[in-house]
Amino acid sequence: MKTIKLIYVMAFMFIIASCSKTDEADVSFKEADVTTESKIDRANDDISDIVENQEMATYSNSISGREITTTSTTFTNCATITRVPAFGTALTPGTQVTKTIDFGTSNCALDNGNTVRGKIIISFIFQPSATSHTITYTFDNFYHNDIKFAGTKTFTRVMTTNAAGFVRPVVTMNMDMTITFPNGDVFTRVGTRTREIVEGYTTPSWTDNIYQITGNWVTTRPNGTTRTATITTPLKIRLSCIAQQKPVTVKGVISFVSGTNTASIDYGNGDCDNAAVLTINGVSSTINIGN
Question: pTM to 2 decimals?
């Protein structure tokens, strides 16, 4: 009888210990995690911009279109771009197009200061009369700020008209990424991130562009725990902040759930600054999110 009781006691203690370890892992959201999340977000935005830029360049000039520097926030002269069918070949509707953007094997600075190396390969069907375009893209030894991205993704660009009659592209990025940081930590992220330009699309300069971003995703961390993120207040991206060496995310809220714990990042009131408010389980503090 004593043996049976001892077994029950040991089993109960094991369950309590397991729960404590899970809670401890869940509580691990702190300022360092904000930095990790923002680095992945920054890369996703740059990748989305590069892919959109190269797909739209094909429609701007189907024979020799390589880039649209006046509207790109990121494009750089470091890249070598090749295409199948080859540049110089006229495209007809229905043609399968594959473009390889090769940034080389050494870090190459984008216009916004971030660095990349490796290749992004995009593929799509040339349909100039369509209002919706789907692009598949994959990475070949691709790094963004020395963080490696791997996997094959899809990207959808839809030209839409808002209530004010403003026509602009709405881009939805379907994320299914494996991300390896320089220290060897591996993260995976699955979800969607939708970006629409709300100001500046019709001007020749990209510096006055303002974007709105919505979406949700799940990030799995190196220890196996997961964090669900939802943009609960649309993010506002102001590209003019680049000139001030400030982060371009200036407004909006991302909310996180990890086990029984909650957190949020509030990016502020729209000013170009480094401050954000991090709230973990109801306790708030002002943090510096860096460039």
Answer: 0.81
